[in-house]
């Protein structure tokens, strides 16, 4: 083989190698993240304890310290029997935090890595609500809801379109996905201008599209920011009754990451 031909082959190989390396994707860097590395408490400039309300999901919410702890770089939220707080008539106490009025998430990918606890009547959830909106304005995105000892999670969207108008199958507004019970799993949602896409452990599990319709608020999810709720819930018409013998129950949240779309 001639010297010129060898030089040509080497130059071609070098060029191909350069092209391959240029196309290799870089590891994305979160534009916002929470690693829960604080020793004593979560960062109150980002998170607040969810107050008690009158709905199934928040009727047992409490600021009682036993419902919250920081452990090994993780936020732990608990559901417990109320045997300690005098003057509180709730049989159970639960811990939950949210970023309401502190941190909002627009178009992008939001991820939560967590291990869920199991108990009869336990209902842990990660979800989004419209920042500065009166519900159901702005819509609701349930990134993860888990019931009892299930090996699946529920992922759903809600809005005026699905709640007030009760249109839940055009398009379908929710689905389920398998998880590894008792292990850490990663739950994610991607918000686009024309769709909401949900994932479990990087596997696409459900998508809800914007469609052409004259009905009200079919797709409010791209109209402004949403705040994030992370909470342990107990009991209610959907999950059923709580077995006090199964308590306390807890979930561990390792981290939250957000990747904004340009």
Any guess at the CATH architecture? Sandwich
Shape: globular
Helix content: under 10%
| Pattern of helices and strands | HEEEEEEEEEEHEEEEEE
* Distance between the ends: 51 Å
Q: Give the tally of structural domains.
A: 1
User: Count of helical segments?
Assistant: 2
Structural class: mainly beta
Describe this structure in words.
This protein has one domain (31-260): Jelly Rolls, CATH 2.60.120.200. The protein has two helices and 16 strands. The chain has helices at 3-23, 160-163; strands spanning 32-34, 48-49, 68-71, 74-81, 92-94, 96-98, 108-115, 125-130, 140-145, 152-158, 174-178, 184-191, 195-200, 203-209, 226-231, 249-260. The strands form two sheets. Strands 1, 3, 4, 5, 7, 12, 13, 14 and 16 form a nine-stranded antiparallel sheet that branches. The radius of gyration is 22 Å and the shape is globular.
List keywords for this structure.
262 residues; mainly beta; Jelly Rolls; 9-stranded antiparallel β-sheet; 7-stranded antiparallel β-sheet; 2 helices; 16 strands; globular
In short:
With 262 residues, the chain is mainly beta. The chain is built from two helices and 16 strands.
Write the layout of secondary structure elements.
Elements: H1 3-23, E1 32-34, E2 48-49, E3 68-71, E4 74-81, E5 92-94, E6 96-98, E7 108-115, E8 125-130, E9 140-145, E10 152-158, H2 160-163, E11 174-178, E12 184-191, E13 195-200, E14 203-209, E15 226-231, E16 249-260
């Amino acid at each position: 083989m001639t010297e010129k031909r060898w030089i040509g082959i080497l130059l071609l190989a070098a060029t191909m190698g350069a092209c391959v390396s240029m196309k290799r994707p870089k590891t994305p860097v979160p534009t916002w993240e929470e690693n829960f590395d604080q020793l004593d408490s979560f960062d109150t400039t980002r998170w607040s304890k969810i107050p008690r309300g009158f709905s199934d999901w928040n009727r047992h919410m409490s600021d009682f310290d036993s419902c919250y702890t920081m452990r090994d770089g993780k936020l732990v939220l608990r559901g417990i029997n109320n045997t300690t707080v005098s003057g509180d008539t709730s049989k159970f106490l639960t811990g939950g935090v949210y970023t309401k009025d502190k941190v909002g998430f627009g178009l992008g990918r939001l991820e939560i890595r967590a291990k869920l606890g199991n108990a009869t009547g336990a209902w842990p959830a990660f979800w989004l609500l419209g920042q500065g909106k009166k519900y159901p304005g702005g819509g609701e995105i349930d990134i993860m809801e888990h019931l009892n000892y299930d090996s699946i999670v529920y992922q759903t969207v809600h809005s005026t379109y699905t709640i007030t108008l009760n249109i839940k199958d055009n398009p379908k507004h929710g689905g389920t996905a398998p998880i590894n019970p008792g292990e850490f799993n990663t739950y994610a949602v991607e918000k686009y201008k024309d769709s909401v896409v949900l994932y479990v452990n990087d596997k696409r599990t459900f998508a809800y599209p914007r469609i052409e319709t004259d009905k009200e608020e079919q797709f409010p999810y791209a109209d402004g920011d949403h705040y994030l709720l992370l909470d342990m819930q107990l009991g209610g018409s959907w999950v059923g009754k709580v077995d006090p013998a199964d308590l306390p129950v807890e979930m561990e949240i390792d981290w939250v990451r957000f990747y904004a779309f340009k």
